[in-house]
Amino acid sequence: MKDIKVLGTGCANCRTTVKLIEEVAAERGVSIALSKVEDLPEIIKYGVISTPGVVVDGKVVHAGGIPDRAKIAGWL
């Protein structure tokens, strides 16, 4: 199971990123633990300045803008 966190304060891009990750995981039959981190000090701890940020298994894999489906599939 992949542990995935979406970092962001609740903007539309962050919500879209959460939805895309859920969709791609479901399409591929991959089990994920998906959480949303909206606490700014917690986001900064990851070194992410531009949101949305995505953390997979403790590693920042994306920051700024909505990732495309192919990129998400690569994380899974």
Could you please describe the fold and organization of this structure?
The chain contains three helices and four strands, in the order E-H-E-H-E-E-H. The protein starts with a strand and ends with a helix. It has a single domain, classed as 3-Layer(aba) Sandwich (Glutaredoxin), CATH 3.40.30. The radius of gyration is 11 Å and the shape is globular. Helices cover 39% and strands 28% of the residues. The chain has a four-stranded mixed β-sheet with strand order 2-1-3-4. It is α+β, with helices and mostly antiparallel strands and 76 residues long. Helix 1 (12-28) links the parallel strand 1 and strand 2 (32-37).
Q: How much β-strand is present in the residues?
A: 25-35%
Class derived from helix and strand content: alpha+beta
Please identify, by name, the CATH architecture.
Answer: 3-Layer(aba) Sandwich
Q: Whole-number radius of gyration?
A: 11 Å
- SSE series: EHEHEEH
CATH C-level category: Alpha Beta
Q: Count of helical segments?
A: 3
Question: What is the tally of beta strands?
Answer: 4
Count of spatially separate domains: 1
Major beta sheet summary:
4 strands, mixed
Oligomer: single chain
Major beta sheet, strand line-up: 2-1-3-4
CATH superfamily: Glutaredoxin
Estimate the global geometry from the Cα principal axes.
globular
Mean pLDDT: 96
CATH topology: Glutaredoxin
Provide the low-confidence segments as ranges: none
Distance between the termini: 9 Å
